[in-house]
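Morning - S-adenosylmethionine inputs below, output right after.
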Amino acid sequence: MDQEFWHRRWAENRIGFHLSDTNPLLVKYWPLLNPKREDAVFIPMCGKSIDLSWLASKHNEVVGVELSEIAVRAFFSEHLYTPTVTSMSPTMKLYQFDELSIYAGDYFTVPLDTYSLIYDRAALIAMPDSMRQKYVERLLSLLKPGGKILLVTLHYPQEQMDGPPFSVDDDEVRRLFDGYQITHLNRDEDSDRPPKGKAADFFAEEVWLIESE
Ligand SMILES: C[S@@+](CC[C@H](N)C(=O)[O-])C[C@H]1O[C@@H](n2cnc3c(N)ncnc32)[C@H](O)[C@@H]1O
């Protein structure tokens, strides 16, 4: 999945993954992380998710990274926020407004801090098999000791459907986050997917709590 693929998706507004409201799974399961206002939150590959605003209403510092500047600009204009914009390199900008900072740039190269809490919805599962290990290594390097991740994945028969979104099953979550405490919080087979025009025998959305020990 090269970067051009995602730039094209945003340029053509093919963003079926975008939710028009706060993700109910975030609202339901975030309290299980025992979040405190002063815990800094990181959201990888955040798109223009409304979840950014929900988390910013509960935390002093929320940091997102999104490759597409179209998405980042849309997020701020759709919320009527006027961010300050700092150019960091020809391919990287930092957008800031109150508690929220969003880097428009590549997740793998943006200069990030470490965070107590991470929210991954449709980021790990946007990565093809060949990139997932590298994606998770970077994610775990950004997690403070004692930190927690709320992770939302999809599980379906991969041979019946092309990704993204890709299927990431129970075994793979446990392998990718080996050495961390993993709690399976929810499996929903009635989620309103697969994406338009695609079909699979089953299609389950799963929620995980990953904790560093
Ligand atoms: C499936 S979307 C999910 C967006 C968001 N998490 C949501 O729930 O709406 C995956 C996002 O990852 C972004 N992305 C893909 N590769 C990236 C990279 N290397 N760095 C930053 N963002 C990336 C895409 O532009 C896209 O917006």
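Note: Helices lie at 3-11, 24-29, 51-56, 69-78, 129-141, 170-176.

O.
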